[in-house]
Amino acid sequence: MLKESRRCLFTVWKMESFKSKAYVLRKDKALGWLKSVSGRGYSVIAPVSEDDTVRFKQLSSFNEKIDLDSPTNLSPKTEFLPQYSTLLRFQDLGDGKIKVIPAEDSPEKIVLFGVHACDASAMKVLDEHLSEYSRDEAYDSRRKNTIVVGVSCRPDAYCFCTSLKMNPTSKEGSDIFLTDLGSEADKFYVEVLSDRGESVIDEGFFEKPSREDLALKEKTGNALYEKVTKKFDSSNAEKNLDLLFDDSFWENESRRCIGCSICTFLCPTCSCFDVCDEVSVQEGLTSGERLKCWDNCQQPDFTLMAGGVNPRKNKADRLKQRLYHKFNYMPKRIKKTGCTGCGRCVRYCPVDISIPEIITEVNSKAEDKKT
Amino acid sequence: MSFMEKKVKGLQDCVSRMFSENKVDLIVGYSKGSNNVRTIPYFINNIKDAGKLTFNSFCINNLTLYLNELKDKRVGVVVKGCDSKHIVELIRGNQVKRENLQIVGLSCGGMIDPLKLPRDYDPNRDEITEDGENVIINKTRKIPKKNLYYDKCVECATHTPVVYDHLIGDRTEEPEEPATDPYSKARKIEEMALEERRKYWVREFDKCIRCTACRNICALCYCRSCALDSKNGWVSKANKDTEKWMYHMIKAYHTTVRCVRCGECERVCPMGVKLMTLNRKIEKEVKELFGYEAGLDVEGKSPLSVYSVEDGEF
What we know:
The complex is a heterodimer of chains A (about 375) and B (about 325). By secondary structure, chain A is an alpha/beta fold.
């Protein structure tokens, strides 16, 4: 009951009731549109290629080198769940009095441009996950103030969205979705999917789509689907994982893991955090701030408790936790898989631990167990 | 049999012999990865798994990383030239027992960086093989290897392992000097004015997300309790700019006289931070001050632990 009432609070960005509209946006007008959006008071954040990375950055000169094709190193979750943020500040005033200053709500309006389908879907997973038991007010505030403009991508060998009931032109999670119709057509097919998306459409930059545009959009979507060549069967993952909880398979698979944080820090659906206080003492008076910062279940001490108990002391247990959380616990609790196939965990894993490989092996071992 | 198939057969035979002669409890080698341009570190403890081990120009991981958790076991490990220098340093640092190790060495002309391959092929579906000079895609398309190697391979001067019990295949002809100056990137930074240098590193470290992969992948980062673990209080999880500088500076200094430039730290960084440039600078200073290079001499004393009147400062 309680869970249902919490879900109702998300109608502010539910899109089913909105009748979607279509336009085309010529590529040579795209920057002009973004500039005008910026002129209306929005911060425009887009994937910028610099210093050997592609990262989401706020556009200032609008001459930045925007890369819409490549997967970004960091997922756009960093715009809603930054690596660290201040929860509150405190100041010892002396005489036994302490002043507590809560962190300010950021009222900044944002247009997050160039989000790939996998990352936009992942935000919907985070929305559900972060409202299961309590609310993250800073996250809610940022989500409420951000308009997501999705864009079609260039899949690489590590993407696997199509094995998770998705594809590179899935519109879930986007307020506006742009399909890149290629360098010959030199334009985007634009689908407006929500009121918020509609509010930043400027008819001065957009045109009505033709039948040819629509046909090309369909053709492009199909071609992109075929470009994702890493495939595996995820349809029975939840049930098969139920059968393998105590299997020694996890020992072998985790043996080579080096226990860094790459998979979880880059994952668009991971949201675990730690809270720490940073203090300084000046003239005998303490002041400081309480910070919320990224933490992750792949660290050996993540589940270390007072008294020295650590339920996930072994790497096998930690790898199991990551896979089960995404493919077993989340499907059970929020009816969504906690993975949208962005491929970052595989692309950047120093020792090539791969979700498609693991689930394939899980399927095979579960079959053996059943017979 | 192609030259690479010969190497793989030689490797598998050697591994099988080590089990049948009861010389090892466990072997760490390479096996096929999630696509055709990747391999993974693979652990076998049984002769029947010997056939799962492979070797090719995509075996970039340094397997000696796993040795110090296996200190009391009899372990066989597959090493390339760069990896073997780590074993020298692990012996020097008392982290492995030489008598428990069976080192299977292979010379290599270099490892291929998959990111340097052209974009228009599919690592998931295309067949990738190689001959001495080329990577061959789908049996017909040849791409010369020499443009595809990792930078560290082009700068390498130890293509043949410096320590081994078994050598599979031939020794590689060692050039007098490496093909490229290994300190060229460090020299570029040295040419910058101080403020420009600071700006360069601020931009690099800005990218860092403190995933600690660079530390975890380093075979020479074997401290049981690391100063850079946030639980020890020197750096917090909050990854502010000061934390990033402290993390990287401390880690770089800890590589002094030990780093053998295997390049793994820079390879694994998901944000492309130029870690090798920093490590090379320190290595260059050590070479210029003490005439010393890590990873080559099991016996001699480290220049940081001896005092000599000839040391440049005096």
